[in-house]
What we know:
Blueprint: H1 6-21, E1 26-37, E2 47-60, E3 63-73, E4 79-94, E5 97-108, E6 120-131, E7 134-141, E8 150-158
Antiparallel strand pairs: 1-2, 1-8, 2-3, 3-4, 4-5, 5-6, 6-7, 7-8
Amino acid sequence: MMRLTYCTSLIILFVITAPSICSANSTYIQLGGWSHHFDRSKKMNEEHNIAGIELELGEVEAAVFGFTASTFKNSRGNTSKYFAGVAKVCKRYTKTMRSCGGITGGFLDGYKAENEGGFFPAIIPHASFEYRRAGIDLTCLPKLYSRRSFCAIQGKIKIQ
Length: 160
């Protein structure tokens, strides 16, 4: 099976998401990405170089729906791609500040132990905090869901 390079993955992400950007309520560029694995006996990559996009396509009351697509270096040092739907509930504190909590569910690849490195389904809980155009996303997975428990944080910038 052909493996995609990091740059090729970014180009594919742009082509897939470009038509939706025009109709999105909000568009975020995802950047950075750091994690902490609680089992320190294994040497894991904890700097992930995430490049991605999150589109908020609709909002009903405090519920926000959209999708996300990203590419990053995973904890094992391999390139991963992630395509998923997003559902979250947000609380707005001021016109420019809000926090959200929800789930992201879709498909993830790049982990050799899962589906021989191919895409497999993943549901990931997350929380976020946004102020003006900058924000952070926080994800924690307990050992019962994941082979290794960890918490991760990534930055995002609102462009629309």
